[in-house]
Backbone:
């Protein structure tokens, strides 16, 4: 009997989201649509540009959003991460607990320093550009792992952003080895184009000898494969995992399983903020997979929740919203 439907490891980040113009984004020198790592002086300088703007603060981090999505649908999740002994660290820990996500944070004393944070800059075209200060999560290591809980999970999920951290990458791969030793399915999200451009060796190590599930959006897939030809991309991605989900925004997603390819249509929506869309898709898909849905059904449900999260500001929905989306899906 599995303790958890999903065990994930990733960066603990508190998101602060701002609505900005393209002109302001340009003046800040931020790379649009992508994630950029920043240090303390850069963060201080960027904050001067958004003084006076309304800010929304939420728990974040890619895998953090994914485990919360699964838990809001009724799944059981465990999240390994690292925060500091500060106000943001307490906020992050309480946020996971409020969403019924089990975590190593309740078993360990947080370290001194600053909890990781992410400035999410949303432009009028709904694109999100992220400036990430890793803080304490840059020291995430294997001490955050709970091997017993990995062994008792259905799926072990790695966040591709960990490819940028030597100790985080080592921890993710160690967890993957534990999962494989106990016949636990493995999953990875490529996370961001910047990870592919600068940390591909780490991502290759996470893929290892093959995964059960791989998540990538179209831009990430094109960068990974070095081509925009869809057939060539599918041919290159298919060997990496038993099931590959290639998300394509308003074009829906493609579920790839060996030689099989299934297009799953998007749910029409007016996108306002794309922050968290991929995380939401992954969490919902993995909930579906662990709750007796086929990969195609799970992708169709994930398209619904992803459409809902991009139609509002913020990286998450409420449990009530998620519950209604699932009920509507089952009744459709």
Residues:
């Amino acid at each position: 009997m599995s303790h958890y439907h999903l065990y994930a490891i990733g960066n603990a980040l508190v998101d602060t989201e701002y609505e900005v113009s393209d002109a302001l984004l340009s003046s800040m020198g931020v790379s649009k649509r992508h994630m950029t790592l920043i240090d303390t002086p850069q963060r201080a300088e960027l904050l001067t540009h958004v003084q006076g703007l309304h800010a929304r603060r939420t728990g974040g981090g890619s895998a953090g959003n994914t485990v919360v999505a699964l838990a809001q649908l009724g799944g059981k999740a465990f999240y390994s991460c690292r925060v500091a002994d500060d106000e943001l660290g307490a906020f992050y820990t309480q946020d996971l607990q409020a969403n019924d996500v089990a975590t190593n944070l309740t078993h360990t004393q947080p370290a001194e320093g600053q909890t990781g944070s992410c400035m999410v800059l949303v432009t009028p075209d709904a694109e999100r550009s992220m400036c990430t200060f890793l803080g304490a999560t840059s020291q995430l290591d294997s001490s955050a792992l709970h091997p017993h809980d990995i062994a008792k999970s259905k799926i072990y999920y790695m966040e591709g952003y960990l490819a940028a951290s030597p100790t985080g990458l080592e921890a993710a791969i160690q967890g993957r080895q534990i999962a494989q030793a106990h016949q636990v399915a493995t999953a990875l999200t490529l996370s961001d184009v910047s990870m592919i451009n600068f940390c591909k060796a780490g991502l290759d190590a996470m893929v290892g000898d093959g995964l059960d599930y791989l998540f990538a959006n179209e831009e990430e897939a094109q960068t990974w494969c070095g081509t925009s030809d869809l057939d060539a991309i599918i041919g290159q991605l298919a060997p990496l995992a038993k099931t590959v989900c290639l998300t394509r925004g308003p074009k829906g997603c493609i579920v790839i399983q060996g030689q099989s390819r299934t297009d799953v249509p998007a749910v029409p929506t007016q996108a306002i903020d794309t922050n968290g869309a991929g995380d939401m898709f992954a969490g919902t898909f993995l909930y579906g997979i662990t709750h007796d849905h086929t990969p195609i059904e799970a992708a169709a449900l994930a398209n619904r929740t992803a459409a809902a999260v991009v139609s509002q500001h913020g990286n998450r929905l409420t449990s009530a919203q998620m519950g209604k989306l699932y009920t509507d899906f089952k009744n459709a």
